Amino acid sequence: MTDIARLINSIKRRTSSARELGYDVLFVALDDLDVLADSLETALRANTAQADHIEQLQDIKHQLESKLAKPVQLPKTNGYWTEPEKAYEEAITFAKRQVRLAGFRCEGDE
Known about the structure:
Blueprint: H1 3-20, H2 30-69, H3 83-101
């Protein structure tokens, strides 16, 4: 158990005992209060940093979602008549398949 955890448990025990005895006031050493205050400040800074990081991650998530929402546009083909046109058609078909396997949509998939 860390020092702060021991201190918190000690204060809880003393508070409970004081209440059982009917007391409304509990005396705590100033050093203990300093430790508590420092721990609270540290936790507050950590929470603020985490909140900032979460906000940055949410911004990135929204950017990625907007990119995923737009379908990939690839050239359309009208069939093929020559060998180069056949190769071009096969390349476009292959590219569309790879785009879909990567988790993106192609224009016309709607």
